[in-house]
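Side project, low priority. Logging it here so it doesn't get lost.
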Amino acid sequence: MKVGLRITALLFARLREQAGASRIALELPAGATLQDAYAALRLQHPALEANPEWVRPALNQALAAWETPVSDGDEVAFIPPVSGGDGSGSPVLFELTSEPLDARRLEAAVARSGAGAICTFTGIVRDNSRGRSTHRLEYEAYAAMVVSEMRKIAAEIGSRWPETRIAMAHRTGTLEIGEASVVVSVSAPHRAEAIAACKLGIDRLKESVPIWKKEFFAGGEVWIEGEEPRPG
C-alpha cells in the first residue's frame, strides 16, 4: 500500500497505558480518516480499547468526528472519557498547573466593582470512593486542549449571563488527600447568576475538558472515566 501521509497520534491516561506509549508516528493512505488512524493504532497495539464509544477523537487540538479526514503532518489524539460525567462574558484566568491551587487568587481575578456576588467551587481530594479507601489521586491532561476547552465553557456561560467574569484552574500530577484539584470562580451582579454560572462551569469542565484522574487504593489503581472506573 502506497503511503500517502504521515501523522502523529497522541494517547492519554488508560489508552496510553494500554499502548505503552503516549506519542506514536503513523503512516496512512491518502484519504484516511480518524477512524482509520485508530484502526491502524489497534493493529500495532491490540490491547487498545476496542469500543469506540469509550474513545473521543481529536484533530489538531479540537474534538472531531470519527469520519473526519486527516492530512499529512496532522496531530491526532485519542481521548478516553474525562473523569467527571457521562458568549459575551469575560474570561479572566484559565490555568493548568502542577502547583497547589489558591481559590482566593481566582476570586481576586474575577472581582470587580459591579459584582455583588462571587461563587467559587473547589474540588478536594477525598479519602474514599465507591466504598473503598483512597490513598491519593493522579491527574493527567491533554495540556494543549485544556485552555481552549475552558474558553469554550466561558463563552457558553457568557452567552447566558453576559455580566459574569470566569476563572478556572486545574491541577495535574499527584495529589494527596485534602488537596484542591480544581477551582472555578465566577463573579456576577447578583448571587443567583453567580451560583448558576459556577455550577454550569464545573459541570461542563468535568464533562468536556480533557483531564483524567487515576485513583490509588489498597490493592490497586483505576482510571475514572465517565461514571465508572476503567482498569489500566
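Brief comment: Residues 5-79 form a domain with the Ubiquitin-like (UB roll) fold (CATH 3.10.20.30).
Revisit when time allows.
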